[in-house]
Design brief:
homodimer; alpha/beta; Aspartate Aminotransferase, domain 1; Aspartate Aminotransferase, domain 2; 2 domains; 40% helix; 12% strand
Chain lengths: 422, 422
Amino acid sequence: MNRADCVNEDARDPLAPLRAQFALDRVDAAGVIYLDGNSLGVLPKSAIARTREVVENEWGVGLIRSWTTAGWIDRSQRIGDKIARLIGAGPGEIAVADSTSVNLFKALTAAIALNPGRSRILSEKTNFPTDLYIAETLARERGLELVLVDQPDIASHLDDRVAVLMLTHASYRTGRIYDMAAITSAAKSAGAMMIWDLAHSAGALPVDLHGAGADFAVGCGYKYLNGGPGAAAFIWAHPRHTARMDREGWRPPLSGWLGHAQPFAFASHYEPANGIQRFICGTPAVLSMATLECGVDTVLAAADRGGMTGIRKKSLALTDLFMRLVDGRLAGRGFTIVTPREPDQRGSQVSIAHPDDGYAIMQALIARGVIGDFRPPDILRFGFTPLYTRFVDVWDAVDRLASVLHSAEWRDPKYAVRAAVT
Amino acid sequence: MNRADCVNEDARDPLAPLRAQFALDRVDAAGVIYLDGNSLGVLPKSAIARTREVVENEWGVGLIRSWTTAGWIDRSQRIGDKIARLIGAGPGEIAVADSTSVNLFKALTAAIALNPGRSRILSEKTNFPTDLYIAETLARERGLELVLVDQPDIASHLDDRVAVLMLTHASYRTGRIYDMAAITSAAKSAGAMMIWDLAHSAGALPVDLHGAGADFAVGCGYKYLNGGPGAAAFIWAHPRHTARMDREGWRPPLSGWLGHAQPFAFASHYEPANGIQRFICGTPAVLSMATLECGVDTVLAAADRGGMTGIRKKSLALTDLFMRLVDGRLAGRGFTIVTPREPDQRGSQVSIAHPDDGYAIMQALIARGVIGDFRPPDILRFGFTPLYTRFVDVWDAVDRLASVLHSAEWRDPKYAVRAAVT
């Protein structure tokens, strides 16, 4: 495999035309290779016109009327229904609102309430910190125990003490993915509720929440869904749970007015809306919802090109190519690929560890125009978004990484200075 | 007072030049008089260029780097410091994040934790519903009692059972404002924590949280702060409380990663950030923060025109004029002004009640281009934002309202059909 092979691969790629959906002209012109869509997806061209429309016309001219005339009030459900098609959920089952952290708080609270009499929340030690922090505080307040184990030990900890098993489908650190169906089945067999965080899965690989029989899920709008910085997040609950909540009048912990059965009656007492709608709390961030919808649409545009199956196929080809090139061109440079080689065990990123010098190497690489990121203590992360990442980008990224190593330019002391955000 | 007098009043108005900050050309050209800035403030012109910059350059080209290079990571504090200048708070004391509902949940949880051993949350019956809903659920979960009383009965209910008194400074229904200093003092004397919701105060009238000795406050970004639909909200805590939280390592209930002492260390265990920063939870909605800052800047632009004092003076003149015109021109039409006549008891809106026909009258008025809104069961609300509402707008609005009544066009059955959002 050489660079020309990569160019040919791009020419044959059925997803290649979808790259034109993104505003990458100036990024390309600057020689930047963006491999950080797992942190912040790139800008869909449609979001430029859409934000202008929302700001200048819907807000500027429609003003308060736009809640009905522009459909702001129904936007959460409309976008939720689109996301549902990407993750094996049904229409009306997803609420788009708040942040992933806040939605996880809602999901955890609900899962605990629906599974009383058990003492533990079980999760994995290297789960994304915000998930662990939310669970840690909630566990303290509810007198529960948050038990964090290594990934291989999860199954053996699934016993009748576990109220909830909470996992992130694709690890932000290593890109390892869980077998969602198998783990969910094990959790259900043990009588535990299963909550999946899809932050690094939604839009990146096929997810089948109903097929797996999961209980709750949350996810992020600004990574592989390309929804823009701080885009609204989402929450899903299996309809068997929302049906029970409907019957029992269950109230979410964040019982805000837009989760009320009749928000515009302005009643003094709270009565939860039916279904997932109860998990909406306050007034939604309309602008951030608008860009999120544009982002979700970029993924849905793959529908006639194999949909998530086509995306998955290219994702695996990109990550496989990256790992082979790292093996071949960076041998003896101290790197260890920590992302699983097995296709069914990895998501759409590759993480490589470098003892001691990972941070400086990543900064020097970014200075050369390849944008990945660093996660302590030693991980260089590279995300591959099949909608806009090309095979030739993979080649060029590894080529520049090799140059950074060969030239030793990463030893420049300026690259050792930690930025506020890494 | 006739229309020519109003035109003269506008010519003498020192705040009049500030109207040019807003994108009102097409609103004016359509003959629309917007008196709903208490629901959604109008679009600042600066927000048009700013959203383009954030979308097309910061997101589109800066991509993930913009968290540092464009300062996204510090935006909450920067905007918070600006809001602080409008409400008598200090720098570093306000976090801009999430929605008002979510922030109220944080503030209530903190206030209860800091004042243990008491059994009640006290509030007022017609407080904004989301405040009551959040308090109702939290009270249930904590085994507390939410006691709702009429406004005149608040003082007599302040006893040693009250952990928290939670009030909205300016009523969304009547526009009545509380004497913040007096009520806060009474609450403190009774040993209660005082939480103020400034949704209808921030940017509308002078607020002095430190002067009043308040404990916590929350507020909304999209009303008088002109921050755009669903703009981020804010939370304030008196530094004596955040200092205590620092000493005791107090963790907020929504302990998300951006409220961590070292978010980018990605530690497994939660350690709260110092000060108000701990109340930030997940990743902020960057776009909505950008428009919020533009909106806050429109209020700060009044600084050399008397600041909040100048805004307040004009606000009272506008609402006084409106009430006098309603008195004079709508006598015998069944209206009752429910907003206090006393200047020190009203905010920047006027509410008039009309038995039975209020909804239809408001819809007919909106069809004539005067945008107010309706709140059940019988209230027509009119908001006056001194930065862009003119005296002549007040005249014309009442003139059209009189025409709607005289013509009886509001009796058209189409105006009786309730919209999803009223």
